[in-house]
Amino acid sequence: MELDFSTLSPSKRYHFMTQTVIPRPIAWVLSKNSDASLNLAPFSYFNAVCSDPPLLMISVGKKPTGDVKDTSQNLQKGNPCVVHIPSVEHAQDVTASAATLPYGKSELDEISEDLTTQSLFELPRISTCPIAFNCTVYDVIKIGNAPQTLIFMEIYNMFVSENVVTKDSKGRDKFDASKINPLARLGSSEYSSITDVLSLSRPE
């Protein structure tokens, strides 16, 4: 089966790309709306892209109505955010928080997650997430015909649950992926968990 992307609609390309670029990590992004309410939304066009400065990146499209998504609105104003790495246990709430709501209506009112404050974080974080990054916007780039918005976020602080921290053979802190049990995005309405962790020797 060969596919010529030049003959496909953007929705078809999206359909094929999201089923084949797998698994994708999920950024569960908490940001503040202009009325001080909190917005929470998942993004699977997401990854770490630089360590100096330490940058994460999400790629944000438009709402089905063509309007700018709430997260994009908030972050383009320079507001801070907290990027969570959800675990498998968060799957239903991650899905629920993807619903399109009117601007200013918080997804947190629709799900079961609790928040907690963190001394080095400007915003609260989801208490049950094992990993959270306190970030501010580093840069915003518009690409494509829609356009798509690439938002680069610089990490200032990081939270890691003590429950997932171990030591490696050299005595360094190691974050146990099986204990983090991250939720991964597949295509359509499918998600995945970690089934096996392969520990391989790197070439010298």
Description:
This protein has about 200 residues and is mostly beta strands. It contains 4 helices and 14 strands. It has one domain: Pnp Oxidase, Chain A (Roll). The chain has a 7-stranded antiparallel sheet, with helices on one face. Strands 1-13-14 form a 3-stranded antiparallel sheet, with no helix packed on it. The protein has a two-stranded antiparallel sheet with strand order 7-8. It starts with 9 loop residues before the first helix and ends in a 12-residue tail after the last strand.
Shape: globular
Determine the strand fraction and express it as a percent band. 35-45%
Tell me, what is the CATH class? Mainly Beta
Low-confidence stretches: none
Mean pLDDT: 92
Terminal CA distance reads: 39 Å
What would CATH call the homologous superfamily? Electron Transport, Fmn-binding Protein, Chain A
User: How many beta-strand runs?
Assistant: 14
SSE arrangement, N to C = HEEEEEHEHEEEEEEHEE
Which fold name is given in CATH as the topology? Pnp Oxidase, Chain A
**Name given to the CATH architecture:** Roll
Question: How many helical stretches?
Answer: 4
Largest sheet entry: 7 strands, antiparallel
